[in-house]
Design brief:
Layout lengths: L1 H18 L6 H28 L4 H26 L4 H26 L1
Length: 114
């Protein structure tokens, strides 16, 4: 799990660096940081769901993780970003990109462990 966490944080930091070239204002950068932190927490929880199911129930764990990701994305877009006064474009674009990339990493890590 430590290796997965390190790879996840590295991937999200890399993507945040790329996205910071597009989103350049202070508010946008704050949205990137909040999105990155939230994405790490959500992805670790989702990856834990997949791992807890084992190989026999990996698909069920992955579906539950996907539902978790979608639910948090909706909550973030509808409530949390507004509460934190984050620019929606930067917040949602970065959060969705972080989740998508981390899902790809998750599938690579699962295939590597098999």
């Amino acid at each position: 799990m430590a290796r997965s966490t390190a790879l996840l944080v590295g991937l999200i930091a890399f993507l945040a660096g790329i996205l910071s070239l597009v989103f350049q204002t202070a508010a946008d950068r704050r949205a990137l940081l909040v999105s990155a932190g939230l994405a790490v927490m959500v992805q670790l929880a989702a990856f834990g769901l997949v791992r807890s199911g084992g190989q026999r129930n990996a698909l069920a764990g992955w579906v539950m993780g996907s539902i978790l990701r979608g639910t948090v994305l909706a909550f973030y877009g509808l409530f949390l970003a507004e509460m934190l006064h984050l620019p929606l474009t930067a917040a949602l674009t970065s959060f969705a990109a972080f989740l998508f990339a981390s899902m790809l990493l998750e599938s690579m890590m699962l295939s590597y462990e098999s």
